[in-house]
Every structure is written in structure tokens, then in C-alpha cells.
């Protein structure tokens, strides 16, 4: 809290600690992503079968997220974040070292489930910290996630270039993630104020007037969940298929194909650390539409480019465009009056089903069309997002006052 209810240093430290959780999850996800081509070669799974394996990752994430809401009510977001982060760090080693499809599928499901716990918990705490600051900071948390993506992509690419084996890669990723969790956990906020579940005031980020009925709130949750679903289809396509697209469509080697994902997350990181100020200047609605249009331009370049350097440019523009979209949707969800951890877990659950089911659909599509054509699916998703963007309206210019009472706790979650 602020003022008399918490030390002056507690809130900045909590922001650092929550950012560390985001970095950890980003590091874990990208450590897996850059090794996908190598894991595919080692396990012998086809591109279509790999799509099914990624669906198992999404199913695990959904299962973990549905458990996270009730668990936050019992033990609080900080403790769940630590537990989820440590277990996800350990689970990451299973798919990275898999040598057959059974181990790979099992490992991806476990990694997805533990990652789902971490994701909801860290975002629940992020919603609370943002409210305590009284201004937009959510995009900076997602920027921290992207920093983790960059670190994982850079370290993974370096390990690949050095010829490191799967066990070495797994140890580096697992120990790095676990260390971040253990070092940052003492700064997470504690107490009832850190446990979402009670009613709270609106931050005026959701579209239209404050809903007064449960049916109105449910409609808004589902609308925002649909937007999150579509945007995560787009992010998942870049995470899981950018490297394989470069290798199969343009003949890139292992290192060059890994660079495509690194380019994407680098520009996304830059965008996310500027998105909070752009939200204040342009408003959520305008920023969402502008980002969507920019992402459409980027993926179009990727689809038509016959050259690897131009493809890098396309992924860079794509990442910059998507940078602020997901944080805006999640911030709007966490700002709904009466929002609970369950509400936000629904939106995040829909999003993460998309992040893994969307790429799985791309994998299945490769049975009938080349991967270069299947990558048009994100373009379709972005077109739908553009038509639905009015689900987010321009936020109020003045942030709401931070409530000075212990009975008003934040709710929800969602990276």
C-alpha cells in the first residue's frame, strides 16, 4: 500500500519483484521457443505432430490457470507466484531434454500447467501494484516479460551456436529462472491487500459505463477474453513458428532461424516500455487500433518476403505493433468493477488456449498448405481484432485515487 499503510519503499520493491516474475516466465517461454527446431529433430515428430504437442502445452496452461483463481483466494498471489515459478523452472527441463514424443508431450503439459499458475499469480499481483501506483504501469510488467524473452532467446541462440547439448541448455534455463524467483520473492507484498477476491472500484479502462449487473460484467469479460484470444493467436504464431518458417520457407540455418524470434521479442520489448506513456497520450482505444494496424503490416511483410533480412523487418514491425495490445486488454479486465481472480483467469485462460491452440491450428494447416501460407492465420485474427477494438475505450486522463483502506483489494490476473 501507500502512505500510512505501507513503507515508502515497499511499493517500488514490489514492482521490481513482480517484474522479476514476468522476466522469469518470459525467460522460460523463450528458452523453450528457440529450441523447438532442435527438439523436433531430436524427437522425430512431424510439423503437424508438433502442432498437437503444442496443444498439450496449451491444455496444461489452461488447467493451471483454472486452479490459480481458487488458490489465490486461499494462499494469495505472492506465494502462488513463488510456487508456480519454481515448479515451472523445474518442469522446463523435461521438454528441453525430451528424446521421444511421449516425454515431449508429457513435459509440455506439465510445463504448461505450472506456467499457468505462475502467469495468473504474477498478473494478479501486477494488477494490484498498478492500482497502488495510481497510474498505468501494466505494460512495463509485460515489457519485463519481453526482457525475459530476449534473455532466453539470446542465451538459447548462443548455446545453439556453441553446440551445447540439451542437458546444458536445460540447466542454464532452469537455474536462471529459479534464481530470479528466489532472489525477488522477499519483496512481494504480503497480507490481505495482496490477495485478490473482493470488490473494488473501476479504473475506467473498460468500454462504456460501469456495469451494474452480473450479466453485464460477464459480457464484458467474454468480449475482452475474445480479444485476448485473438491477440494471443498472433503472439503464439511468432513464438512457435517464426523460426521454423524461416528455416522451411527461406532456408535459414539454426542460428539464423532463432534470430527471427529474437527480433520479434526485441521490438515488442521496446514497444511495451513505451506503451504506458502512449496510453496516457493517445488513449487505449487509439493505441489498440494503431498497434493492430502496425501488426497487420508486419505479418504481411513476413508472408510476402522472399529474403531473410526483409523477413526480420517484418517480424520487427509485427512485434512493435502487438506490444501494447495484450496489456491493454488485461488491464481493462482487471479494472472491471467487482472483478475477481476468477474473472481475470477466464480471460487469461482464453488467451493462453489461443496462444497454443492457434499455433496448433497452424501446424494442422500445414497438412494441406505450406507453412508460409498457414502463417496467414494471424493476419485473419488481426483483422477481427481491428473490428472489435471498440471493446476498449480511451481511459480517463486522471488516474483514480488510490484507496486508503485495507478492505479494498485488487482482483484478477492475466499476462
From TrEMBL:
Residues 396-415 are annotated as: Disordered. One of its GO terms (molecular function) is transmembrane transporter activity. The chain crosses the membrane at residues 16-38, 44-63, 75-96, 102-122, 143-164, 170-189, 221-238, 258-275, 287-309, 315-335, 347-365, 371-389. It comes from the Bacteria. It is found in: Membrane. It is a multi-pass membrane protein. Residues 405-415 have a biased composition (Polar residues). GO terms for cellular component: membrane. InterPro entries: MFS, MFS_trans_sf, MFS_Transporter. Keywords: Membrane, Transmembrane, Transmembrane helix. Coiled coil: none annotated. This is MFS transporter.
Amino acid at each position: 500500500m501507500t502512505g500510512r499503510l505501507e513503507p515508502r519503499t515497499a511499493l517500488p520493491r514490489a514492482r521490481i519483484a513482480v517484474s522479476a516474475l514476468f522476466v522469469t516466465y518470459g525467460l522460460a517461454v523463450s528458452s523453450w521457443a528457440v529450441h523447438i527446431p532442435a527438439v523436433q529433430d531430436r524427437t522425430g515428430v512431424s510439423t503437424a505432430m508438433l502442432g498437437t504437442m503444442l496443444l498439450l502445452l496449451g491444455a496444461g496452461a489452461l488447467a493451471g490457470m483454472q486452479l490459480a483463481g481458487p488458490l489465490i483466494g486461499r494462499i494469495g498471489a505472492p506465494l502462488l507466484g513463488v510456487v508456480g515459478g519454481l515448479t515451472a523452472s523445474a518442469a522446463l527441463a523435461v521438454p528441453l531434454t525430451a528424446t521421444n514424443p511421449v516425454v515431449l508431450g508429457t513435459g509440455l503439459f506439465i510445463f504448461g500447467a505450472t506456467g499457468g499458475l505462475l502467469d495468473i499469480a504474477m498478473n494478479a499481483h501486477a494488477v494490484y501494484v498498478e492500482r497502488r501506483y495510481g497510474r498505468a504501469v501494466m505494460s512495463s510488467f509485460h515489457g519485463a516479460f519481453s526482457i525475459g524473452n530476449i534473455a532466453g532467446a539470446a542465451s538459447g541462440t548462443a548455446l545453439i551456436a556453441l553446440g551445447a547439448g540439451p542437458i546444458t541448455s536445460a540447466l542454464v534455463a532452469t537455474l536462471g529462472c529459479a534464481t530470479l524467483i528466489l532472489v525477488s520473492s522477499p519483496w512481494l507484498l504480503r497480507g490481505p491487500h495482496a490477495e485478490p477476491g473482493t470488490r473494488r472500484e473501476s479504473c475506467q479502462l473498460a468500454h462504456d459505463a460501469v456495469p451494474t449487473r452480473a450479466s453485464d460484467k460477464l459480457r464484458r469479460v467474454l468480449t475482452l477474453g475474445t480479444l485476448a484470444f485473438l491477440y494471443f493467436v498472433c503472439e503464439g504464431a511468432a513464438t512457435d513458428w517464426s523460426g521454423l518458417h524461416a528455416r522451411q520457407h527461406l532456408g535459414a540455418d539454426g542460428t539464423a532461424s532463432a534470430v527471427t524470434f529474437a527480433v520479434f521479442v526485441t521490438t515488442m520489448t521496446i514497444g511495451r516500455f513505451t506503451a504506458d506513456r502512449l496510453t496516457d497520450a493517445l488513449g487505449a482505444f487509439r493505441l489498440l487500433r494503431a498497434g493492430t494496424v502496425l501488426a497487420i503490416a508486419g505479418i504481411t511483410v513476413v508472408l510476402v518476403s522472399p529474403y531473410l533480412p526483409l523477413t526480420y523487418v517484418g517480424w520487427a514491425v509485427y512485434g512493435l505493433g502487438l506490444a501494447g495490445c495484450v496489456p491493454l486488454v488485461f488491464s481493462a479486465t482487471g479494472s472491471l468493477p467487482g472483478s475477481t481472480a476468477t474473472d481475470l483467469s477466464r480471460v487469461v485462460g482464453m488467451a493462453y488456449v489461443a496462444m497454443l491452440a492457434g499455433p496448433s491450428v497452424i501446424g494442422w494447416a500445414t497438412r494441406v498448405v505450406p507453412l508460409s501460407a498457414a502463417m496467414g492465420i494471424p493476419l485473419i485474427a488481426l483483422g477481427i481484432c481491428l473490428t472489435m477494438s471498440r471493446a476498449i475505450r480511451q481511459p480517463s486522463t486522471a488516474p483514480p485515487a488510490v484507496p486508503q483502506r485495507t478492505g479494498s483489494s485488487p482482483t484478477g490476473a492475466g499476462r
